[in-house]
Design a protein that fits this description.
Length: 672
């Protein structure tokens, strides 16, 4: 770690938690922030397992273990902190966990703002209960009424020294609440990270359970200790604040309902204008940016990817396969997201990247999002920044290009959607000058970008999407055992799942023994279910909802794959169907027409032509030799052009060529 990075002391009191503490320590050692010391305080444990585990841990030179007679949790914390050398303290109970980015984000905020004494996050409860505790933004008035700050929060050691540490007499609990109250009484502020970076384990009867049984007794002690804070003036102020908060919630819900109504208004859908929100950034170089340094990765090519989120989707699938197949001995991958949302695929991405930062979850302040990104690029000497499908990424591209002239910027455009107000082809073109390369996924999109949008031809690169051929025995797929006609995709208007049901209904009139699978979830799920019931097709069409292993289902079940899309980029699920040796029948739109040569490796049908779909599907079902020829050609097409391995090599080649263009130049960073 670079010398300028402040040391963080993680203090872990332990009383008979030997069965959990290794997992707790591992979560700390997995932190992106590396300048850490770990101090375990054995507070008079009595069980044999804990003794044995602590003996093993004492062999680890990264840990310091202190043994003392049982004095209670607040005293154990104070003991560890007194022995610590860190500028910042993170108390962590021996059965709890932290996310890898917690310390990095906490230290960055504390270094940025000197008036902030402590940083806390949302809390993910796990174990016997799986819930999200949404902590509140820091407000000292509300804190007097109830504790919304978890015990595990990163704070300054100077604050602990100033307030006198934890009250060691509070062995019944709530010692952390009283500590936060005392801290703000000394003028310290708190800061919430709007992201679940602390994981609290729920199991059996805990100290917190006992504390709640004696709640009134402990609260009386806190009020007596801080009589000056619990005055009539403070209580009146608190009451008014609650009334205002309740009124705000009612108004907020009304506004949300009105916005929802506007979105559904048919006239709003006709909007074509791209509105670009200006980005007003005031950079701040007065604090220590070295907290973002990645230890041990500077011998690799540093690439930062900016995506909107890590949801279930085609764009995310493309980048997931890219990361799985990129040469990790040469490339270090940092992934940043720009929109706060539920990231269902986060665990998948964690397995294949070095670091993940959810910028919009970390902070609601866009200026801070940009500042964090700039600091990260500067400190880690990032060489490439790759942006896709994120307005924030495009909007920040100008300041990235001007701040870091030798950092190479590229984007990937997946699909043109000219009827949507947020179409990325149009949106991104306002920022084209900031990019060194523009990647598109089909030759048609390349021609469109150059011909219609007037992009420079030498900046445009075609890299087709690909699927991973690893861990799936595509070549051994037995087409004779597969009996289903399948639709797989998001249940949205673009994919036309309701038309798939109409095609199935028509086909069943001729071949009542045919069986169908409708795989996917989305806004049209309810309508699809109702339509299947209304047409009496529940025995013929299985509505499967969201499925994690679509590729495996296609391999095992799909004889024919139907895709009546209104528009497409280059459909990953179509490539998976072709690799699975399912005969593909799709609408004749761009994306599908880039993938399929009708009559050779699949079939293209005029949009909404149900009779044409039925005619081709019937022919495929009746002529097995003809079908085998189609699926064999389709499989060959995938192997020659649409594998993730090939896609990854092409992206790596682009990165290498961009970085090579810097050879001989005087590269520098942190110029902003």
């Amino acid at each position: 770690m670079k010398k300028e990075s402040p040391l963080v002391s993680v203090v872990i009191p332990c009383f008979n938690y030997g069965n959990y503490i290794k997992e707790t320590i591992d979560s700390v050692l997995s932190s992106y922030y590396n300048n850490i010391e770990i101090i375990v305080v054995n507070d008079g444990s009595t069980d044999q397992e804990t003794f044995e585990v602590l003996q093993q841990l004492e062999l680890n030179t990264k840990l310091k273990i202190i043994h003392q007679d049982n004095k209670g949790l607040p005293a154990a914390r104070n003991t560890g902190i007194r022995e610590s050398l860190g500028e910042y303290i993170l108390p962590l109970d021996a059965d709890d966990l932290i996310q890898p980015s917690f310390i990095t984000k906490g230290v960055w905020l504390l270094e940025k703002e000197s008036t902030i004494g402590f940083v806390y996050s949302l809390v993910q409860l796990f174990g016997e209960i799986n819930e999200l505790w949404i902590t509140e933004p820091f407000d000292p008035d509300i804190l007097l009424h109830h504790n919304y700050i978890p015990a595990t929060a990163l704070y300054r050691k100077t604050m602990w020294e100033q307030v006198g540490g934890y009250d060691e007499s509070m062995t019944m609990g709530y010692e952390d609440w009283e500590f936060w109250i005392r801290s703000f009484s000394f003028g310290w502020k708190g800061r919430r990270i709007n992201e679940a970076l602390f994981l609290y384990r729920k199991h059996g009867v805990s100290m917190l359970s006992d504390s709640r049984l004696r709640h009134n007794e402990i609260v009386s002690y806190i009020k007596e200790k801080h009589t000056n804070l619990y005055t009539f003036k403070w209580q009146f102020k608190l009451c008014n604040k609650y009334v205002l908060r309740k009124s705000y919630k009612i108004i907020f819900r009304a506004l949300q309902f009105f916005k929802s109504f506007l979105r559904k208004n048919k006239y709003l859908k006709k909007l074509k204008k791209v509105n670009i929100k200006p980005l007003n950034i005031t950079t701040n170089k007065s604090y220590n940016k070295k907290v973002l340094y990645i230890s041990g990765n500077q011998d690799k090519i540093q690439v930062v990817y900016i995506l909107p989120w890590l949801k279930v989707g085609g764009v995310e699938k493309v980048f997931l396969d890219l990361f799985k197949n990129i040469d990790r001995s040469r490339f270090s991958i940092t992934l940043m997201t720009s929109i706060k949302d539920v990231n269902e695929w986060e665990d998948k991405f964690k397995e294949v990247v070095d670091q993940i930062f959810h910028l919009a979850a970390f902070t609601n302040d866009e200026n801070e999002m940009v500042q964090f990104l700039l600091d990260y690029v500067s400190v880690n000497e990032v060489q490439c920044i790759h942006i896709s499908n994120t307005q924030f990424g495009y909007r920040v591209s100008k300041i990235l290009r001007s701040s870091f002239p030798n950092v190479k910027l590229l984007d990937t455009l997946h699909m043109e959607e000219p009827y949507e107000p947020w179409d990325y082809f149009r949106f991104s073109q306002s920022f084209s000058i900031n990019f060194h390369k523009r990647v598109v996924i089909t030759q048609f999109l390349s021609e469109r970008l150059v011909g219609f949008y007037k992009e420079s031809a030498d900046k445009v690169v075609v890299i087709e999407n690909g699927i991973s051929m690893q861990n799936a025995n595509f070549s051994a797929s037995d087409t004779n055992e597969k009996k289903y006609i399948v639709f797989a995709g998001r249940l949205v208007k673009q994919k036309q799942p309701l038309l798939f049901i109409d095609i199935a209904h028509k086909l069943l009139e001729m071949k009542p023994e045919t069986r169908f699978l409708l795989i996917g979830d989305g806004p049209l799920y309810k309508k699809a279910k109702e339509k299947i019931v209304r047409l009496g097709l529940t025995n013929s069409i299985t509505l499967m909802g969201y499925q994690e292993k679509v590729k495996q289902l296609l391999l095992e079940k799909a004889s024919i794959f139907i895709a009546p899309s209104l528009m497409e980029g280059l459909p990953i699920v179509g490539i998976e169907a072709m690799a699975s040796k399912a005969a593909v029948v799709a609408s004749d739109v761009r994306g599908w027409s880039d993938l399929i040569s009708t009559g050779i490796n699949g079939f293209l049908v005029a949009q909404d032509d149900i009779h044409a779909y039925v005619e081709i599907i019937t022919k495929l079902m009746n002529d097995d030799e003809f079908k085998q020829k189609i699926v064999s050609n389709a499989f060959q097409t995938v192997m020659e052009k649409y594998t993730a391995e090939s896609m990854s090599r092409k992206y790596q080649d682009v990165y290498d060529k961009l970085i090579q263009s810097n050879k001989g130049e005087d590269c520098y960073y942190g110029s902003y």
